[in-house]
Amino acid sequence: MAVTTMPQTKSKSGFRRSLLEPFLDFVRRDRLALIGILIIVSFILIAVFAPFLAPHDPRDMLRREDGTLARLDPPSLRHPFGTTNLGRDVFSQVLIGTRAALLVGFLAAFFVTLIGTNIGIIAGYYGGWVDSLLMRLVDILYAIPLIPFVIIMMALVEPSIWNVIWGISLLTWRTVARIIRSQVLSVSQRPYVKAARMAGCSNFRIMYYHIAPNILPLALLEMAFAVGWAITAEASVSFVGFGDPTVISWGQILHMVFLTGAIRTAWWWVVPPGLAIALLLIGVFFTARSLEEVVNPRLRRR
Amino acid sequence: MRAYSFTAVLVLSLLLMLSMHTWAFDPEDRVKDVMILSTTPDYDPVRYESAMITADVWRELGMDVTVRPLDFHRLIADTRDEPYDFDAFTLGWSGRIERLDPDMFLYSLFHSSQAMPGGNNRYGFMHDEYDRLVEQQRTEMDIDARQQLVYEAQDILAEEIPKLTLFFRDEIQAYNHENFEGFLVMPGEGINNEWTPMKIEPLGDQRMLRIASTEDLDTLNPLAATTVWDWKNLRLIYDKLVRISPEIEPLPWAAESWEITDDVVIDVTLRPDMKFHDGYPVRTEDVSFTFNYMMEWGVPYFDAFLGPLESVEAVDESVIRFTLKEPYAPFLTNTLGQIPILPEHIWENVVEDYDLDHPEQWDNPTAIGSGPFAFNYWRRGEELRMDTFEDYFEPASIDGILHIVYGHAEAVLGALEMNQADMNAWRFEPLHIAEVERMDHMTVTEAPDIGFYYLGFNLRRPPFSDKAFREAISYAVDYELIIEALLQGYGQAGAAGMVIAPGNEFWNNPDLPRQFLDVDEARYRLEEAGYRWDDDGYMYYPE
Amino acid sequence: MRKYIVRRLVQMIIGLFLVASVTFLMFRLLPGDPTASLLDPAFTVEIRETIIERFGLNEPLHIQYINYLQNLVQGDFGRSFYYRRPSVEVLGDKIWNTLILMLSSMIIAYSIGVIGGMILSWKRGSKIEWGGITLGLFLRSAPMFWTGMLLIMLFAFNLGWLPHSGMRTPGYEAATTFAKFFSVDFLRHLLLPMITASLYFLGTPLLIMRNTMLETHGEDYIELSRAKGLSEWRIMILHAGRNALLPVITAGALFLGQALGGQVVVEYVFGWPGLGREIVLSAQRHDYPVAQTAFLFLAFMVMLMNLVADLFYSYLDPRVKLK
């Protein structure tokens, strides 16, 4: 009994000591990480309050004072980012688009991490044929490129944002699974896991009670990267026209610029959505990078 | 204790209020879950946005509407097959030249025989009188009598409203007037018609007509070609017995003349001394071979035109006799006007020589025909080059045609601007029209479409099974806004019953009633028909 | 060694078989009419049935599956619904276009990235490192299609220096295949998409190189070299650099898979007639045979590159034994 409780307390405080505290410590010292977190937090705030912040309904076809359609108006006080070919306010669209990006990013990353971590733990812990079967599966998935896969899938199913999320998740867990597995392989060799096994703990208990907490930091790091991939993938798929047409997303805004042939004239319609994608991803990568340095201390600056 | 009774009274009175509410307006009776299917904005932003604009008006009327964008192929299949789970949809029919004949739009889209799964009567429109009329117009060889039947059929559609035509889109194109002159504009075809390359004159050193397109070509095999893009080139390489004149009338072309006896036997005299591009003469046997070959193997694209044929035979060196199963009014314009003449000496052994299942699998690498332009080379995905056939009976003045494929509309505009292309193959994106108008070397042309964009209704279930409802709804569509916002004004508003475009002057019934956006009128008509509204403005079916 | 390669090749064939099966099932089992693109909306019911029969789509699913596999083994990848010709032919030329664009941008990105990463690791803690990391992360964050659009706006529309799309100027004359790909005209068309892709690819080698270089700094042999009095520059290139290359190459091979997929958007923006653009087109047209074959091609290329990377890895680091 004592044998099994020991690692539990160890891992709990271990999580705080090994990840949270150094991370917070880092954020205090590392300017990049601080900027990253600030960026993400601001995007979350924008997403939550978007309907209040947006000056117009992003789908309204707005008119000028003389009653004509406000077609391709350059930036002004009334339209900070100008208007689209149908007189829609780009600023409001970009604000609302934050929601789609965050929804896809976080949800897909969550699924990816959930699937990937579990498969990684199972493969690493059981080893043998289970391991080789799962890892061969991972190998095969590695051969399927993400964006073409989601594009084809979206052409077959109904174009909805949930299907984009499924599409991304179905494939991207491969990376997490592979990395988690190798970590599990080394954790399994640690004395307390061996001890737990000798004490007759169930496999399930060992995997999720003793091993899982030790790979959590790594899983979180992978999740941060997955957020980045998912956002890029959603933007790309929407950009080539296979996104959810009923949900305004940054990729979709850019798709419309391209489709209507406004790229020649309307720079204000091109620059903001792309900058929003880049900015959010920078926030994610900045944060991920400092997480990475926490997980892998050798990267730290002296 | 007091608090309890207070709560009880409150709950009871609330329940009472709710039930009274329900008694007057059963939620089951609400006009709800009305679903408009549409293409994705990627496939066609105009159709998608039209659906969105319409949904907004319907919501104003108190209906609960969803617009569901579907991939184009899904949309085609879902509106054509069971379980027909939709109430309305936005689609369009492109104005191919053979659709100048009213048969396709009147018969295939609305005859009750086409209402089964897979048919093009997506509305489930059943009308005996209408069926009789469109069957009759099909076999009526007297053109004025046929016009009358066609008018009457349009009247019925205007009255029954299985669909609303939203608009006819103008084809805006442009050509370089410093390089060429003499462009012809045809309804539905614009300047990219079969006469333009045959008739234009070069003005300077540029003697090759360069046509910029965003559409890739898929094949040069006339038995496999299914897109209008393939045919725009194939009809120049392969000659046809009849061509539709710029005034949209059948003109004897590779045929010298025709003679019709008792409506079912047509004797066509072939123009003498014509040659294929490889030097072989064009014989009457080549013509009869072509039709028999296509009937034998089956060519889906021409099925409707070949179906009425009983037999085709070369009578002598100059006459080919076509025998029909029954009179077929579109015979001259569609059967003779669309089917290309194939050289027998090339096609007769293709299947055996190349070990094919069907001649449509042959890639036809040299594409030898007898048309005004001869195939030179085709770099797939890049460009197709055809050279003027000097042995043609009316050789063109230009040296040839280069059909160039660009990645997107932006590139087409750039090519026109930089004098890398002389005309565009298809209409501009609305935003590009102003750009091209600014270019001094370009002339902008405008042609009315003969196809149409429409809002179809599902007559198999409520609410659109109710004719009064459809009548009212014909006033709840913002035809003007769609044209102003989405087409930048380059189009004409549609109405109920308008399946034959005004640009197709002979067949279009000019006396059809017109509708326009009038929400009060729509509401009034709905009220007359017994529809009701609750205090929140939601619409309910008649009791 | 030979045994190892044979085993890997067998694994590859099994992998391709599975990818083929998965895509086959995906196209048949997901909702959506597999025949939609074959059929002109104007066709009557009878014609639809004939066409469906002609493409063997009326057979039960398992028969279609067996037919598909049998044909695959015989090198018949199916006939495009749209082009009506073998899908392999449709994709044949496109593969080269994709590879040229991808490899040229990868080479540029990796050359700059590796050298840049070395410099960053040596300048640890400086402003240069901070700026370099930020730049690397920014490049990896800006979506390729957006960078591409900005470059088109600037260099093609505003300045008019470079063509905005396509691969060659129409009506070109080219005597040989070599001339088709190594003409000034072709290179001018290649430049913008290549820069777009390399900017995006650059971030990964830059950051990985820096990270692995940092890891080697503490290693004994570096300390030893330092003690021997070798110059920092020499240590950096010959010792640390060489060992740090290994993870960069592994990551590069894995990254190739993503690059092949991600390049879809670059080809789309620049109208580059490659595999990726064809995938988008085939998805729009529901041209299943082409999409399926493109998938198989991509999978094959990724698997092949992984194998090459592994072999290269063992060559560079003799400690790694292939088994």
Total number of helices of chain A: 10
Outline of chain A, from the CA principal axes?
A: elongated
Helix content of chain A: over 70%
**In percent, how much strand structure appears in the residues of chain A?**
under 5%
Poorly predicted segments of chain A: 1-12
Distance between the termini of chain B: 44 Å
CATH class of chain A: Mainly Alpha
Nearest-angstrom radius of gyration of chain A? Answer: 23 Å
Radius of gyration of chain B: 27 Å
Report the biggest beta sheet of chain A as strand number plus sense, adding barrel if it closes.
none
Mean pLDDT of chain A: 85
CATH topology-level fold name of chain A: MetI-like fold
Total discrete domains of chain A? 1
How many alpha or pi helices of chain B? Answer: 18
Distance between the termini of chain A: 42 Å
* pLDDT < 50 runs, ≥5 residues of chain B: none
Assign the structural class of chain B, choosing from mainly alpha, mainly beta, alpha/beta, alpha+beta, or little secondary structure.
alpha+beta
Number of strands of chain A: 0
Quaternary organisation of the protein chains: heterotrimer
CATH superfamily of chain A: MetI-like
Please provide a written account of the structure.
The complex is a heterotrimer of chains A (302), B (543) and C (323). By secondary structure, chain A is mostly helical. Chain A has helices spanning 2-29, 31-53, 90-126, 128-142, 146-156, 161-188, 191-198, 203-239, 250-260, 267-295. Chain A has one domain: MetI-like (MetI-like fold). Chain B has 543 residues and is of the alpha+beta class. The relative contact order of chain B is 0.18. By secondary structure, chain C is an all-alpha fold. Chain C has 2 domains: 2-73, no CATH class; 87-316, Orthogonal Bundle (MetI-like fold). In chain C, 76% of the residues lie in helices and 0% in strands. The termini of chain C are close together. Chains in contact: A-B, A-C, B-C. At the A-C interface, helix 4, helix 5, helix 8, helix 9 and helix 10 of A face helix 1, helix 5, helix 6, helix 8 and helix 10 of C.
